[in-house]
Specification:
This protein is α/β, with parallel strands linked by helices and about 325 residues long. It contains twelve helices and nine strands. About 40% of the residues lie in helices and about 15% in strands. It binds phosphoric acid mono(formamide)ester.
């Protein structure tokens, strides 16, 4: 077991052993989730505030379910009904939550660095649920968990991430996690959204979609993140779909056992053909389900939990 961190802020600073500890712990929690009684007392008496200042469906709800299953007391902060609307700063908001005895703050924010800022400012545990285009560490951990569960290993796999890489925190966290675990990562998309600077993260960069997916074991699709783009990055959505969307003709030229992933929300008919999203090769909903066990593992370890043995009693 390798884990001695107060926070989970990013994947970049984690070692391969730390990532593996999260995945092994999540495996034990997934077994717990399949029992009749899904709750464990690990966070009993601990208060968690889910501070989501940017929209979310999957991350917010799976964090809340994870916290319920760990027996935590939970407060869901609603940005639109808060004093942020009256001009209160993030720092003051968070310090007031700490004064109200929050032990954990799970933060999603549109600003890169928001989670690191809170970790420097507060004494609570801080978990990054997505900060701007920077990182989305629990998404990468649940993606790695899903790949390992389906393929048995991550080392040596060819993983292609296809789409809007430049503005994607999911891409950055996945690149860090997958390369640390020994996968060969290829990035593909329009040159405006997949600059060669990403090669410095240990990836192959290509703008040839057929070549990028031909030998892939995993094809991980990303949506176009219009909310983070300040200028037009390609001529039209229709042209993007034609040149880079995963359709049946393209899929037919891939390995028959390649699997399709997407962090959601999916723009059906844009980055992925709707039938492919619902096909047996799609892991999209498995990723969502695995998010609960992975977020249980993260909160358990950050709280000082000792790893899978403590859950299984082994
Ligand atoms: N994957 C993901 O972060 O989805 P949400 O924005 O719905 O949380």
């Amino acid at each position: 077991m390798t884990w001695n961190r107060k926070h989970l802020l990013d994947i970049e600073s984690l070692s391969a052993d730390e990532i593996t500890t999260v995945l092994d712990t999540a495996k034990a929690f997934k077994a717990v989730s399949q029992r009749a009684i899904k709750k464990v007392p690990a966070l009993r008496g601990r208060t968690v505030v889910n501070l989501f200042i940017e929209p979310s469906t999957r991350t917010r709800i799976s964090f809340e379910l994870a916290q319920q299953r760990l027996s935590a007391d939970i407060v869901n902060f609603t940005a639109d009904a808060s004093s942020l609307k009256k001009g209160e700063t993030l720092k003051d908001t968070a310090r007031n939550l700490e004064a109200l005895n929050a032990d954990f703050i799970v933060i999603r924010h549109s600003a890169a660095g928001a989670a690191h800022f809170l970790a420097r400012t507060l004494n609570t545990h801080v978990i990054n649920a997505g900060d701007g285009s920077h990182e989305h560490p629990t998404q990468a951990l649940l993606d790695a968990f899903t790949i390992r569960e389906r393929k048995g290993t991550i080392a040596g796999l060819n993983v292609t991430i296809l789409g809007d890489i430049l503005f994607s925190r999911v891409a950055r966290s996945n690149i860090w996690a997958l390369t640390k675990l020994g996968a060969k990562v290829t990035l593909c998309g329009p040159s405006t959204l997949v600059p060669r600077t990403f090669e410095a993260m240990g990836c192959r960069v290509t703008h040839d979609v057929d070549g990028a997916i031909r030998d892939a074991d995993i094809i991980h699709l990303l949506r176009i993140q219009h909310e983070r783009q300040r200028k037009t990055m390609f001529p039209s959505i229709g042209e993007y779909t034609q040149l880079f969307g995963l359709n049946k003709a393209r899929l037919a030229k891939t390995k028959p056992d390649s699997l399709i992933m997407h962090p959601g929300p999916v723009n059906r008919g844009v980055e992925i053909d709707s039938d492919i999203a619902d096909s047996v090769r799609s892991l999209i909903l498995e990723q969502v389900t695995n998010g609960i066990a992975v977020r249980m593992a993260v909160m358990f370890l950050v709280n000082g939990g000792k790893g899978a043995q403590e859950i299984t009693g082994g």
